[in-house]
Amino acid sequence: MRPPPWPKALGLFRGSSLAPLTLILVFAVLHIADFALHAVLRNEPDVARRPAALFTGAAKKSLVLATNPAARAAGVEPGMTAPQAVARCPALVIRTAQPAAEIEARAALLAVGFTFSPSIEATAPGICTIDLKGSGAACPERSRRAVAELARLGLPATAGLARTPLLALYAARATASVLLVADEENFLHPLPLAAADPPAELAAVFAAWGLRTLGDLTALPRDEIVRRFGAAGLALWQRAAGGDTRPLHPVVPPQTFAAAMEFEDGIATLEPLLFILRRCLDRLTLELLASQLVAAELELTLRLADDTAHARSFRLPEPTADPEILFRALHTHLESLQTAASISAVQLRLVPTRPLVRQQGLFETGLRDPHGFAETLARLSALVGSDRIGTPQPEDTHRPDAVKLRPPAAVIPPPAPPPMHPSLGPPLRRFRPPLPARLEFSGGEPAYLWTENFHGALATRRGPWPSDGDWWQRDRAWARTEWDIALADDGGLYRLLLVDDAYFIEGEYD
Amino acid sequence: MATAPEILAGLRRQLAERFPTAPRAAARTLRTGLAAIDDAAGGLPLGAITEVVCATPSCGGHLLLGQLLGVTRATRTRVALVDATDSFDPCSFPVDLLAHLVWVRCPTATLSAKVSAMAGALSATDLLARDANLGLVVLDVRHAVERELRRTPASFWYRLQRAVEPADLALVVITPRTAVPSAQLRFILNASHSVDALGTGRPALTATLAPALQRQRVAPAAVA
Fold first, then answer.
1. Which of A132, A121, A150 is nearest to A32 (CA)?
2. Domains parsed from chain B with CATH numbers
3. Cα of B118 to nearest chain A Cα, Å
4. Among B107, B132, B202, whose Cβ lies nearest the Cβ of A372?
5. Phi/psi at A419 (nearest 5 deg)?
6. DSSP states of A424-440 as a string?
């Protein structure tokens, strides 16, 4: 249930520009109201602006748990049944809680919390309490940035700063952005009694007594409250007074940087998938930055509706925590990806590493823009195939045209000394596959050559040069005979090839 | 009555006044080590397209490519070769000469694939021309299907020229005939090797290369 509207806080300093900060701020609270609803809606950007409500289930009798502002404006309230809610707002978007989305939203909230301080507590769903000791005087400004960051991540949050965790929570709940509690008494006095979460039986008694605000309750002698209501009364009185400082239950900073999302209906187009991945990357890079790490590798797994999976690993040319660069790597790959079925779940994992800190050498010829180069290669791979781009590396064999491609080196090595025996003749310009050729013989000697591309009388012929290899492997054995020929008409020099009684032109000397 | 050059000069002056642009640095070039090119044009212009027309078979197009690989290897400049017809033979070159090369092999399994390979090669060149890490990009369409070459719109080559202009790289297009209207520099290789070339050392053979300058739209200037 949403708390009742609270009166405007009195005697408060809003923002750092007005706050003299004479008090010692010890705690901050980042608060996301209707957390479960926003955890779901943040993954559906087109739904977020429409009236939407979170229900207890998918059944007809399910009840409204939470609503967004558009739904509240249309008159939908928590506790309504689905027919009642839809009767008031026919365009209402109905959603149920998604545990995976809540886990992801909780991780995003904590990731932003870790940018404040390493000592944070996941107090409750949508509530992150931060110990500010040693954080300096810029806390209001940093709180504002944290709220903006959470808004960027799709989570509308508020922040409160105060002497105790409970007081900071009251402040976060009482504001629409950031609230710094300087005058505790004036702040607490007008807050409704419901803010202190009184037990139902105590709330009924106090209502009968005419107590409406926290100030009304704390005006009563504490000992008299204890004498009449025991420990429960004492706890309520202390909560009404703003509580005490307490040690937090710190959350351990993440050791692995992974995100997972499941989709009820499956994703069949690129745009929503990219949106989800961007959300995940924004959160993961925040966690990396808080841990002072960068990503060396990205691992993407897409689970498909037909129970198959597509997995791809992206080795980054230079470790980074820039979400834009990481996103570009994913985007480039996914642009050209076609799957047999819709995507039912996505997993993303960043392999962390320490950032590389070194000075560029004066004569170093590394990449000017490593990420740009990686993206160019990825786009080229999508265009011509990943096995058709790279630095050629002749294989250690005499088999003709045995070349493999390896990824281009990040740094070009210094040139080797020139070879003792330089190559002879012009390089070969290959025909792949070799051109089938037909020879006409005159007097037992080849005299004329025919191919689909050219033909002509043979002016000169050198050879033959027979060669073979891999004869010990039946399926890889090869044997061939070569001639170098010159055509009289066009003056071209070619390599003529005889394999299994068939003639081919293997290439042109160019 | 004003002559055509005067009218053209007047138009250029008006355009320059109406659409002023930032002054550009003097054109820089990439020395090739070949006297015929370096003496005539100062080398290959950076930020511009150079077309090398291989008008006859065995005229030395790949020999020139080997020379470019050699000079860029010495300066450790990264080179990309877009091989539209998958005709480059790495085994014809020393292994060390390939350490800085990014070879893009456009597939040529079938005729239809070959046709689409041309479009793929042009797209690949467009991508590489925008990469800041490369000093030289070579597009080899020497064995491309004639009708595909003819079908390539002139606007593509001008677009490519615009893409290269702000970059610090030289773009060389090896063609079987003049095909690049936006080329700032054009050389023609029209002398086939003799049979004796097959027994001649590669450096000596390269020194005999004499590409003829056919077009020069950039003034020779500073050397890269």
1. A150
2. 47-217 (3.40.50.300)
3. 11
4. B132
5. -65, 145
6. BSPPEEEEEEEEEEEEE
User: What does the DSSP 8-state code read for residue A46?
Assistant: H
CB spacing of A429 vs B88 below 8 angstroms: yes
Nearest-Cα distance to chain B for A502, in Å, is 20
- Do B131 and A369 lie within an 8 Å CB cutoff? yes
Give percent of chain A above pLDDT 90. Answer: 22
Residue ranges of domains in chain A, CATH in brackets: 36-97 (3.40.1170.60), 101-240 (no CATH), 259-355 (3.30.1490.100), 428-509 (no CATH)
- How far away is chain A from the Cα of B58, in angstroms, using its nearest Cα? 4
**What number of helices (H) and strands (E) belong to chain B?**
7, 10
Residue identified by tokens 């046709």 is B115
The residue to which tokens 């591309």 are assigned: A453
Would you say residue A16 has pLDDT above 60? no
Complex ipTM: 0.84
User: A182 or B172, which is more confident?
Assistant: B172
For residue A133, give every residue at least 6 positions away whose Cβ sits within 8 Å of its Cβ, in sequence order, or none: A26, A117, A119
pLDDT tens, A426-444?
Answer: 999 999 889 899 988 888 7
Q: Which residues of A35-48 are buried (b: 16+ CB within 10 A; e: fewer)?
A: bbbbbbbbbbeeeb
Note whether B131 contacts A: Cβ–Cβ < 8 A.
yes
To the nearest whole number, what is the mean pLDDT of chain A?
85
Question: ω into residue A78 within 30 of 0, thus cis?
Answer: no
In the sheet that holds A389-394, the strands lie side by side as A403-406, A389-394, B101-105, B79-83, B136-140, B170-175, B48-54, B185-189, B212-216
Q: Which residue of chain B comes nearest to A454, CA vs CA? A: B57
